[in-house]
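Work Package 3 (structural annotation) set out to generate three-dimensional models for the target panel prioritized at the project kickoff. During this period the team completed the workflow that converts sequence records into discrete structure tokens, so that structures can be stored uniformly alongside our sequence database. As a representative example, we reproduce one entry of 158 residues exactly as it appears in the project archive.
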Amino acid sequence: MEEILIETKIKAYAVAELPDELKALAHLSFAATHGAYAPYSEFRVGAAVLLDNGVIVTGNNQENAAYPSGLCAERVALFYAGSHYPGLSVRAIAISAQTGGRQTERISPCGACRQVLLETENRYQHPIQVLLCGQETVYIAESAASLLPLSFSGSDLK
């Protein structure tokens, strides 16, 4: 038997410490929570995607009474970016959430969103900074791949 240790490096920043570009991205992700359609969970998630050309695309979660038919904020934003800017890689994504009218202190993408983030990284062969935004602290992973160890990718299909 062999034991394998998998580690991920995440940097924690106070919001005020962020570079201006990432601070703006974090604020836009929180602003996007206000447009979420979340009548069932009342858990509103917003995402802001920074493209290679500096364009920022936002998205928010869209719930459905048939829960699996809804879509997370991250995938809404990433799919919009891929549809409207198909040749541009994603440099960063900021994710925020609110519940009860207050921003949460921690948010992390679900497994499906992590898989889509990884596919987007692989598609453009460019790491995506992932900002997990709270009111006081922002956690940054330098690559979506670091959030999904032992991931499934297109190379597994060959």
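The two ends are 28 Å apart (CA to CA).
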